[in-house]
Specification:
alpha+beta, two-stranded antiparallel ribbon, 20% strand
């Protein structure tokens, strides 16, 4: 009798643990995906704003109007974002001071836009990169040349949030396990009472 009770408890415990683990993993993967999609949407909007505020002069050079605001996140300081602009041939025509002497990890030719990828920022932080192609606006002539712009920002806030979500799921799973196993033990004991001699 005790052997039957032990076997039932062991099998039910393994089944519940498996269900909890799979459910928690699927939930985490879903939350991870949704949060990264939202992060990429915000990043894409930011790089598109930079592209829309870029003007091409009559001599073919680019003027980055957003730099007139002296945005600190593109200066040569720690915890800064970085951008880089190329011609479609891969020739750099603009870059942020925060990038230093490094180039953003973009490989030419690019056949599909936008491009998203993880990379390491110049100051060593984990980053996320968005790459788009764009045609700068021109006041006097019709724009004809297409450029490529990449914006890299820190993904530390996203990673920290995902870490907290993972910790929350682990704690919730632990609480569920601690609450469920006594109920399983009592249920098995009660169900087998009629078999006791």
């Amino acid at each position: 009798m005790n052997s039957l009770r032990v076997r039932l408890l062991v099998w039910l415990s393994f089944c519940l643990l498996g269900m909890f683990a799979v459910s928690g993993l699927l939930l985490y993967v879903y939350v991870y995906h949704e949060m990264e999609v939202h992060f990429d949407d915000v990043l894409l909007e930011r790089v598109n704003i930079l592209a829309r505020t870029t003007e091409q002069r009559a001599d073919g050079t680019l003027e980055f109007e957003f730099l007139e605001a002296n945005l600190s996140q593109y200066q040569s300081t720690n915890n800064a974002d970085c951008y880089q602009v190329w011609r479609r041939t891969g020739e750099t025509v603009g870059r942020s001071l925060s990038l230093g002497i490094q180039d953003l990890p973009v490989t030419f030719p690019i056949h599909q836009y936008p491009v998203f990828k993880n990379f390491t920022l110049p100051d060593g932080r984990a980053g996320r990169l968005a790459v788009v192609n764009f045609v700068p606006h021109e006041e006097d002539i019709r724009p004809t040349e297409t450029f490529v712009m990449a914006l890299g920002i820190s993904r530390e806030e996203l990673d920290n949030t995902l870490a907290r979500v993972f910790q929350g799921l682990c704690l919730a799973g632990l609480a569920l396990v601690l609450g469920t196993f006594p109920a399983v033990w009592l249920s098995v004991r009660r169900a087998l009472e009629s078999l006791d001699l």
